[in-house]
Design a protein that fits this description.
It is a single chain. The protein has 12 helices and 5 strands. The protein has a 5-stranded parallel sheet, with helices on both faces.
Length: about 230
């Protein structure tokens, strides 16, 4: 009986100590802890690891906001070209052991790589082949390059240094080649280009911050299109 009484006192004191600790924990830390637990719960539930691979258009996307119920990783890096990804596949893709990979790359190659569209296409195909070599069961989704809008004026925040020499005609030609990659492989082509253009074939003004990068409205359009592929 004495031992039982001591145990009850110990449990009660431990409970009060735990309550005291919890009360002292910063509210922001509790929020962070909940976020980690939710991510762990999502991963435990669906057993998927989904990587989004690309450049600044990917890196600027708040994946947790648009895909809160999925175990997603943002592997986008601003300024990246196809060669940058090929040179670092381990840290950009393989470390996550992905079940699905969404690839959006090539717009920077059009300006900085010195490659023609066939060369860019070949690099993208090599990225896909390397992923399959690592795990042939990985599902790969290849997005079309997004359109640009170089007709915006200064008031509309067009940054000529951002759009540079990109043209939608060149982008469409590259997208045709990208689609053929998926026809020759088992990856899925996602035609995002047509979902983002206006009647003149430019990026819709309401979707972009500078003629190249998306704003929140643009990302919402993209996310709504991609969700069905995350559910496959």
């Amino acid at each position: 009986m004495k031992n039982l009484k001591t145990l009850v006192i110990f449990i009660g004191a431990s409970f009060m100590l735990l309550v005291g600790i919890l009360l002292c924990v910063n509210e922001q830390e509790i929020i962070k802890l909940n976020s980690r637990l939710e991510r762990l719960e999502r991963y435990t539930y669906n057993k998927e690891s989904i990587v989004f691979l690309g450049d600044s258009i990917t890196s600027r996307c708040d994946l947790d906001k648009y895909f809160p119920n999925y175990n997603v990783y943002n592997s986008g890096i601003a300024g990246n070209m196809t060669k940058d990804i090929l040179d670092n596949m381990e840290n950009r893709v393989f470390v996550y052991n992905p079940t699905k990979v969404f690839i959006l790359i090539g717009t920077n190659d059009l300006v900085y790589s010195g490659l023609d569209n066939d060369g860019i296409k070949n690099n993208i195909e090599e990225i896909i082949n390397k992923i399959y070599e690592k795990n042939s069961n990985t599902k790969i989704y290849l997005e079309s390059i997004y359109p640009v809008n170089n007709s915006l004026n200064k008031i509309e925040k067009l940054n000529k240094e951002i759009v540079e020499t990109r043209t939608n005609d060149n982008i469409k030609d590259l997208n045709n080649k990208i689609e053929k990659i998926c026809n020759n492989n088992k990856c899925t082509y996602i035609n995002m280009y047509d979902n983002l253009t206006d009647k003149n074939g430019n990026m819709k003004r309401i979707y972009t911050v500078d003629g190249l990068h998306l704003n929140k409205i643009g990302y919402k359009v993209v996310a709504s299109k991609l969700t069905k592929y995350l559910n496959e």
